[in-house]
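Hello forum,

I keep getting stuck at the same step: I have a sequence, I want structure tokens, and every attempt I make locally crashes halfway through. Rather than fight my setup again tonight, could one of you with a working pipeline run this one for me? It's a single chain of 400 residues.
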Amino acid sequence: MSFIPYGRQHITDEDIAAVVEVLKSDYLTQGPAIETFEKALCQETGAQFAVACSNGTTALHLAAIAGGIGPGDRVVVPPITFVASANCARYNGAEILFADIDPATLTMSPLVCRRILEKCAAEGRPVKAVITVDLAGHPCDMQAFALLKKEFGFVWIQDACHSIGASWEDNLGIRWKVGEFPAVDMTVYSFHPVKHITTGEGGMISTHSEALAANMRLHRSHGIMRDPAGFQNPSEAFAADGSANPWYYEMQKLGFNYRITDIQAALGTSQLRRLAENIVKRQAIVAAYQSRLAGLPWLKFPQVADGVSHAYHLAVVQIDFAAAGRTRAEVMNRLKADEIGTQVHYIPIPMMPYYAGTVDSAEIPDSLAYYRQALSLPCFPQMGEAEIERVCSSLKKALA
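Reply #2:
Ran it on my machine without issues. Output:
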């Protein structure tokens, strides 16, 4: 009996061939495969520009830099997300404010966010940016946050590390892909092995702003400018005849080495071709879980808002462990004994020692209530009927 992890990469012969082709080429990094990957993501998501980088965390950091987040700025983040969603702003010296989640969809509550925005505005220190998180693959309330952005004027960064390929429908009946909606300043993706597509490690930021894209590309590679059109020291950059000196470059910003390789980009481009079919498989897996676990009295699934096509990076369930007479650790260990891996997504960020004292627990009751009941079941495209049945049977036994 093989082990069933909560997530697993899916590598095909086509993926391997794409990587081998790059390995035989002249470029292993900073070559044409990166731009090909960026253009493929734009085509997939409907964004105008995309900037590939080394991982999802660096993607978030580049977005924070391009958004002008700096020391003393206030940035709103949901408590239920991976720590990188908050850390990206802290790297720049910002103050993190936590807005509780909507208990139905598990994404940031627009109503709670509004209260924070109003309070900060009244204090004369308005919020600089809001980082929404599409937890498990469910887009946040896009229309509500677009209205908040219009009213309060913050920078909107959408953490879509779970939701590439998801979509939603607005009140006019227009369907939008994640990454397509123009009200969002920057949308961030992760290509970790358990995500919808993988590059091993990798990330991307999409935007409709050419200026933001240029800023992120500059910071992605040490802040170095190599385009003669952007040089700031013409006396050094150009020869007497006006031609650019062939050796010349300028470091114009304090940037980073956040580059992705052509090897990774080739893998990502190949994987993108299967994104749509793999999301359909993930949706079918969750539908099977919902059908087979419907009789368990202590278990429920998060809701899906009207008009949303959920990407299901994660198959999250909520279990009233106290009512079931089991601790979460006991349930996870019983599943592990049956060779089934589970996980918790996530421990609320304010519970981390580094962020201790940043928010009172009374201000995030729905995040804490969700955390006490959260469990992520296995969900990846290669799962078959037998594996789904194993998970359901084992979970029923653990809760019996």
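Residues 284 and 381 are 9 Å apart (CA to CA). If your local run keeps crashing, start a new thread with the error log.
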